[in-house]
Task: structure prediction
Amino acid sequence: MAINKNHEFEDLDGIKCSVVEKNASPERLQFLKALLELNHYTVVVTGSPAPKAAPAPVPVSTPLAEGGEASTSPMNPTPAEPEVPPAPTTFTIGVTDLTFNATNAVFGRLLKTADGHIVTLAYWQQKELTSDDTVPYFDHG
Result:
């Protein structure tokens, strides 16, 4: 168990892993998997569990009208069943190296891109398409 939320461990497909990111989209999964494998990490991916749905509301019965039927007036319509949208497909990404910590890897300048540049925070978060490692992260405006 992790001491804090920055360094989590989990069993992914029966393998003890250091969690890189939870609830990652398929596009994010492709990006991180390629980057981590390029840096010689063994990546393990599993589907994230679906979020827990709220319990269905209990239908409120209306008092019977004089004819013995339930009243369905415009003021008290029969509640329709709410449609549950399909859960988005998200993934949990982990690496088998238990010493890996994403924060330490980015700020410690331990990861490299395919063209040999050091991975910056903006590149890791996919805010920039290239990694400009000539200016430190703390000098960016």
